[in-house]
Design a protein that fits this description.
With 66 residues, the protein is mainly beta. The chain has 1 helix and 5 strands. The chain has one helix at residues 18-24, and strands at 2-5, 8-11, 32-36, 39-41, 56-61. The chain has a 5-stranded mixed beta sheet, with no helix packed on it. A hairpin with a 2-residue loop joins β1 (2-5) and β2.
């Protein structure tokens, strides 16, 4: 199935969750913010959110700096 991550098309297995997507891309969950179809998701909800055809996912990495 096709989803869009930060505006780019990606193929994804049916039944995949937001958590699967974050882990597959090697992102640190503690430093990652995810929005699905315009709605920000809490990290604790990632395992319950199955990805669907044409979902639009925005992923942001939080970085500390000075």
């Amino acid at each position: 199935m096709k989803i869009f991550v930060n505006g780019e098309g990606h193929e994804c297995e049916s039944g995949s969750t937001v958590e699967d997507l974050v882990r597959r891309h090697g992102l640190s969950p503690e430093a990652t913010l995810v929005e699905r179809n315009g709605t920000a998701l809490r990290r604790r909800d990632w395992t319950d959110r199955e990805l669907r055809e044409n979902d639009r996912i925005e992923v942001l990495q939080v970085a500390a700096g000075g």
